[in-house]
Amino acid sequence: MSQPAQSQSILLKHPLVGKILTGSRSRSTAATPGLSVYQARAGNYDRFMHFLRYAQTRHMILKDFLPPLPADITVLDVGCGTGICTDVLQDVYPDADIRGLDQSTEMLSLFRERHPHIPAVSGDFNDPDLLGSHCLLKPASYDLILSAGALSEYGDAQAYDLVARLLNERGIFINIGIRKNPIGRLIGAAWGFRPSDPHTIMRICRKAGFSDVSAHQLSWEWFPRTLIDVVIIAQKSGSASFQQTTEQAV
Ligand SMILES: C[S@@+](CC[C@H](N)C(=O)[O-])C[C@H]1O[C@@H](n2cnc3c(N)ncnc32)[C@H](O)[C@@H]1O
């Protein structure tokens, strides 16, 4: 599931789209689209997501999917960006030990402004040496890992291995990704990724060691996000199963 270099996408070459998305910041020359795109657009990211009602719906959607868990859990937001989903994690798990991981220093600096008390690690989740490279990235140290618009968009198979190994034996992984359909492809063209089929993601999760993996479509209540997002929930053996109320299996 490696993503092709698409930082010079056709959409970005359109002067209006390029201006809205890139703002006045100069574009990075970094090799991976997952880095260069976000380094360049970090300053406009929240404004853009607000305009698309992403932040508001993220709150409501995530609250449906995040399971009830003990108060003192440890949670990692993988590809945390500016912290939009971390806001929800904080709301739902106010006593949890929450951390972020992202490779874009520009996104992380906005994350740190927004969440000055939440530790955030700078790192590439596709880096095979990332596990254990930082005190917040120790094996089996998380109860819950969330990734929204990051792992399934920019991660390769070993990023899923990383997630599985960061989770303890009862850990839960929740991924909100972009659907593989014409809208998803358009979004992918603008943000430098190629959407993956949920069945492919589920297969990779199982290969990474998750035993209970399911894909969920959003309820039509969240239209138009229903057409855009797909949620994968992967649990390691021994995890308590939990109920969601607004989605159906894909
Ligand atoms: C669409 S944003 C999502 C941010 C946040 N989760 C949200 O929902 O607003 C994708 C994020 O993934 C990060 N990212 C992309 N590739 C990455 C990688 N290989 N390692 C770590 N972070 C990565 C980007 O820097 C960016 O902040």
Structure write-up:
- The chain has about 250 residues and is α/β, with parallel strands linked by helices.
- The chain has a single domain, classed as Rossmann fold (3-Layer(aba) Sandwich).
- It is built from ten helices and eight strands.
- The protein has helices at about 10-15, 15-20, 35-50, 55-65, 85-90, 105-115, 150-155, 155-165, 180-190, 200-205, and strands spanning about 75-80, 95-100, 120, 140-150, 165-180, 210-215, 230-235, 250.
- Strands 3-2-1-4-5-7-6-8 form an eight-stranded mixed beta sheet, with helices on both faces.
- Strand 1 (about 75-80), helix 5 (about 85-90) and strand 2 form a beta-alpha-beta unit.
- Helix 3 (about 35-50) packs across helix 6 and helix 4 runs parallel beside helix 5 (about 85-90).
- It is globular, with a radius of gyration of 17 Å.
- Residues about 1-30 and about 240-250 have low confidence and may be disordered.
- S-adenosylmethionine binds near residues 34, 84, 149 and 154.
